[in-house]
């Protein structure tokens, strides 16, 4: 069995090298580099496990747990912007690989300078991949962990990076979170990702956020959603990566078991010991067939260009430019509808806050009056202070509870609008793809993804002074000279006025926070969409230029080029026959 495994590994490695050589002959450096990586991976019998999921799900924290050290940067905002590959080594070290093929060693403690979106925005440092070497048991025997940027953050290039690595991975850890239900973006990503993997581990992080009842409901919902996409039952591991990491650091075995990580870790170890070899060969075989398909499409693309009359190409390209203009018009029309929908959300929000304020004013006044009656014997200094503090507590308590409910409703309303908006815009992108496919036999324009309401929180409670100073220093001094009955009536009257003032002031602050979230989210989405269209057009214009250069060659040169591509196609066919022979052996 081991001998047969080694023979297949050698054959697959040789085939990957042959395919890389073909990519080089096709003058496609991106494919060549990707295929060379696959060749090295097969040669070293590496098993790449990619950690995927939406941003802020805790992917980097999970990997830090496996490493037993705080190596990868973590935080409450989207952090990881670069794919990070983690391999076994006797001592910790790191290497930065740039897109221009330069590489340099770096201190492992400095990698956040390159990984994080904050310190390397939109990958301005032009990094291709970061490699970390670390003495962790899980990385032994060829296992390589891959940390990917989170999908669905406001940084679209992060989602693109996450997608980029899928074809090179052999298995996946798909991470969801208990603090937010499984969303459409995650389901779409899983739908796209499932074709690359035969083995996916499903984890639901942050279970320590939930009560036992909430945990059961959340896990059942996640399992149902994921099973629908995969069309099969799944096993979902409820975990707390943060709790597991802390327990591992402090040596608290019971807390580690409570985190749920131990159960997952044991199952993963069994898989790596007993099933990895089978999945490895299956994964390598599929990767090689995928590489063959990419080369066939590349050859089809080049031969289509060379066989197409210049006049036909120019007509199709003119059509394409028209479709790009149509997309801009479509965006303008869709934005007008979005503006109207968002205005309706804001107006509805204002009405709800006003209604809530009126109800709360009555309740808070009743509660304050009750406290006043129970403490009317207090002195003129302490009674106003007590009532003021209680008022602030009641207002904060009321709006905090209301905010938790309202924000979910707001997110759903916003998401519904954006789904309709992206649907409209993607119709335009589909039209663009029809043209590019007719010309190049390639669909060059990717659909725009959905953007949820941003999580930034600018709301804070603002109150008047919680000391008796709200009565004014002179009046406060005069109160001590008044009969207790008069004094108390003034104190009660003043605090009742403040109920309406504080509810209105903080209600307006909360409304402004919601409006800011909506407007900023819309602005970010607009910019991302426009950037997406601009990048697509720039990419296609580059192909247009190359098209015309190829087509401007002499007829004899074109025939020579076509013959060359047919020879490459024949070579590919012989590799496919070789692959079929290995399957039968």
Automatic annotation (TrEMBL):
<protein>
    <recommendedName>
        <fullName>Dynamin N-terminal domain-containing protein</fullName>
    </recommendedName>
</protein>
<keyword id="KW-0175">Coiled coil</keyword>
<dbReference type="InterPro" id="IPR045063">
    <property type="entry name" value="Dynamin_N"/>
</dbReference>
<feature type="domain" description="Dynamin N-terminal">
    <location>
        <begin position="49"/>
        <end position="196"/>
    </location>
</feature>
<dbReference type="Pfam" id="PF00350">
    <property type="entry name" value="Dynamin_N"/>
</dbReference>
<dbReference type="InterPro" id="IPR051943">
    <property type="entry name" value="TRAFAC_Dynamin-like_GTPase"/>
</dbReference>
<dbReference type="InterPro" id="IPR027417">
    <property type="entry name" value="P-loop_NTPase"/>
</dbReference>
<feature type="coiled-coil region">
    <location>
        <begin position="332"/>
        <end position="381"/>
    </location>
</feature>
């Amino acid at each position: 069995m081991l001998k047969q495994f080694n023979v297949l590994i050698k054959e697959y490695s040789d085939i990957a090298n042959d395919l890389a050589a073909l990519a080089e002959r096709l003058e496609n450096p991106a494919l060549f580099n990707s295929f060379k990586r696959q060749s090295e991976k097969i040669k070293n019998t590496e098993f790449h496990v990619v950690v995927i999921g939406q941003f802020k799900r805790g992917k980097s924290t999970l990997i830090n747990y496996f490493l037993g050290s705080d190596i990868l940067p973590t935080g409450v905002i989207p952090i990881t912007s670069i794919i990070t590959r983690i391999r076994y080594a006797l001592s910790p070290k790191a290497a930065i690989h740039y897109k221009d093929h330069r590489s340099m060693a770096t201190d492992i403690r400095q990698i956040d300078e390159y990984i994080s979106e904050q310190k390397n925005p939109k990958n301005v440092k032009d990094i291709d991949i970061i490699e970390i070497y670390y003495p962790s048991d899980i990385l032994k025997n060829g296992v390589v962990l891959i940390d990917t940027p989170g999908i669905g953050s406001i940084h679209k290039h992060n989602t693109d990076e996450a997608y980029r690595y899928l074809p090179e991975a052999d298995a996946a850890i798909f991470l969801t979170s208990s603090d937010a239900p499984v969303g459409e973006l995650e389901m779409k990503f899983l739908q796209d990702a499932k074709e690359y993997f035969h083995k996916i581990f499903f984890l639901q992080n942050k279970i320590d956020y939930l009560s036992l009842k909430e945990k059961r409901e959340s896990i059942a919902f996640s399992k149902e959603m994921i099973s629908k996409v995969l069309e099969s039952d799944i096993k979902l591991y409820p975990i707390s990566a943060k709790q597991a990491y802390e327990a591992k650091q402090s040596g608290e075995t019971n807390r580690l078991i409570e985190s749920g990580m131990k159960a997952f870790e044991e199952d993963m170890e069994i898989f790596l010991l007993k099933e990895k070899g089978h999945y490895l060969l299956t994964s390598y075989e599929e990767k090689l067939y995928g590489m063959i398909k990419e080369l066939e499409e590349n050859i089809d693309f080049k031969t289509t260009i060379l066989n197409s009359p210049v006049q036909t190409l120019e007509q199709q390209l003119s059509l394409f430019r028209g479709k790009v203009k149509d997309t801009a018009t479509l965006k303008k029309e869709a934005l007008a509808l979005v503006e109207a929908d968002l205005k309706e959300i804001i107006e509805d929000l204002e009405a709800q806050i006003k209604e809530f304020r009126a109800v709360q004013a009555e309740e808070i006044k009743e509660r304050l009056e009750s406290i006043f009656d129970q403490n009317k014997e207090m002195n003129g200094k302490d009674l106003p202070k007590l009532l003021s503090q209680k008022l602030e507590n009641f207002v904060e308590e009321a709006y905090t509870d209301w905010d938790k409910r309202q924000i979910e409703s707001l997110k759903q309303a916003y998401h519904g609008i954006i789904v309709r908006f992206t649907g409209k815009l993607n119709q335009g992108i589909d039209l663009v793809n029809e043209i590019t496919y007719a010309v190049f036999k390639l669909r060059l324009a990717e659909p725009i993804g959905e953007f949820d309401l941003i999580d930034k929180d600018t709301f804070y409670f603002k109150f008047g002074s919680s000391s008796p100073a709200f009565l004014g220093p002179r009046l406060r001094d005069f109160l001590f000279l008044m009969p207790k009955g008069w004094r108390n009536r003034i104190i009660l009257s003043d605090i009742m006025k403040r109920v309406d003032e504080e509810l209105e002031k903080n209600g307006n602050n909360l409304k402004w926070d919601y409006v800011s979230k909506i407007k900023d989210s819309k602005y970010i989405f607009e910019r991302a969409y426009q950037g997406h269209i601009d990048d697509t057009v720039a990419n296609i214009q580059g192909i247009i230029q190359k098209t015309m250069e190829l087509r401007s060659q002499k007829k004899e040169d074109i025939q020579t080029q076509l013959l060359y591509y047919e020879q490459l196609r024949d070579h590919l066919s012989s590799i496919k026959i070789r692959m079929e022979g290995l399957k039968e052996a």
